[in-house]
Design a protein that fits this description.
Number of strands: 14
Order of helices and strands: HEEEEEEEHEEEHEEHEEH
Number of helices: 5
Helix content: 40-55%
Shape: elongated
Largest sheet: 6 strands, mixed
Structural class: alpha+beta
Length: about 375
């Protein structure tokens, strides 16, 4: 009758340890890594669009005090990180290594973002600060806390049909996921259409008034002196520079010209970026000069200290030499005084002479 092979106890222990290690490794690989956790910033359905002149903005505050502003103007999306509730370039956070990892609508990457990844110089893993994208469809301006993405027809459809918009960012060592509820995205487009309709209605009214005035002038031309008709002037709007940039001038554009408005805002942003770069260079130069001046001051102080130490040492030596000379001269003069002699070279020490030795007025 055959019997099974009996393994030594040491081998059984080794096999047991290996089984425990394998099971532990599998459990660890399946568990969540706490170091990969992202900070979640969410703007729910209670966060409403704030409307401007054909612009809409949603803002949400993170636990660290930063504000994330989603801006939409019918042409592009812009995400800006600021230090206050105001969506302004002047209050924008400045980053050195701002990365945009992904942009998703309802959990699906936007096609225009994928296009930007594929058309970024050097690599396509994420949108990196300092790298350019072909045609500037996407712009990662981390030094201004800003990301801009132009919209295509497909991306507009995706946003109109979507419920949530997610930005996966990495402005620090820890990732930040900023999620906006966009179930009301169509409300923004409706508001824009309402504003455009109002502008068009005003323009139509102006045109009708102009035609009516022209017709009235033509009818009365036979009996009255023709009256000049004032031409209809298109309403002008201005793209204003942010606070703190007094040297920049506002750029004027036709209010009903969306392309002109976008171009004017782009020019303002470019000018602000140029001034920020100049300010950085000026600050760096001022800091360099301050450090040079500080180094020169420390060098002067060190030289003065060494000079004072040298003078003090010299004075001590002189005092010691003087004391030694005085003692030797007194010894000589005391011998002279003991013999009843009064020498002129001893006049300097007359205060130490015996009472019978008097000062000699002939000694100079």
């Amino acid at each position: 009758m055959n019997q099974g092979v009996v393994l030594p106890m040491s081998v059984l222990r080794l096999l047991t340890c290996l089984a425990i290690l394998i099971t532990s490794s599998q459990a660890i690989s399946k568990s969540d890594n706490p170091f990969n956790k992202a900070v979640i910033v969410a703007a729910g359905s209670d966060v409403q669009w704030q409307y401007g002149d054909q612009t809409a903005t949603k803002s949400v505050k993170a636990k660290d005090g930063s504000w994330y502003h989603l801006f939409y103007d019918g042409l592009k999306l812009r995400l800006r990180v600021t230090t206050s509730a105001e969506d302004s370039l002047a209050g924008a956070r400045e980053f050195n290594d701002f990365a945009v990892k992904d942009i998703k609508v309802d959990g699906k990457r936007m096609k225009v973002f994928q296009w930007c990844l594929n058309n970024q110089e050097k690599h396509s893993r994420f949108l990196q600060q300092g790298l350019t994208v072909n045609k500037d469809i996407c712009q990662n301006m981390g030094e201004q806390g800003t990301y801009v993405m132009r919209l295509t027809r497909d991306s507009m459809t995706s946003l109109e049909q979507g419920k949530s918009l997610l930005f996966e960012l990495k402005p620090y060592r820890t990732a930040v996921h900023v999620k906006f509820d966009i179930s009301d995205f169509n409300d923004a487009n409706k508001e824009f259409k309402k504003q455009i309709d109002a502008v068009m209605a005003a323009a139509a009214a102006e045109e009708a008034a102009k035609k009516e005035a022209t017709a009235a002038a033509s009818a009365a031309a036979a009996t009255v002196v023709p009256v000049a008709v004032t031409p209809v002037v298109k309403k002008k709007c201005k793209a204003e520079p942010p606070k703190g940039y007094a040297s920049l001038k506002a750029i004027e554009y036709d209010c009903d010209d969306a392309a002109a408005k976008s171009e004017a805002n782009a020019k303002i942003d470019k000018q602000v970026a140029s001034i920020n770069e100049q300010r950085k260079k000026a600050a760096a130069e001022a800091e360099r000069k301050r450090k040079e001046a500080e180094a020169a001051r420390l060098a002067r102080e060190e030289a003065l200290k060494r000079e004072q130490e040298a003078l003090a040492a010299s004075a001590a030596i002189q005092a010691e030499l003087s004391s030694d000379i005085t003692n030797k001269m007194l010894a000589v003069c005391k011998k002279q005084w003991a013999e009843g002699n009064s020498r002129c070279y001893c006049e300097k020490y007359i205060e130490f002479a015996p009472s019978h030795i008097k000062p000699n007025p002939d000694c100079n």
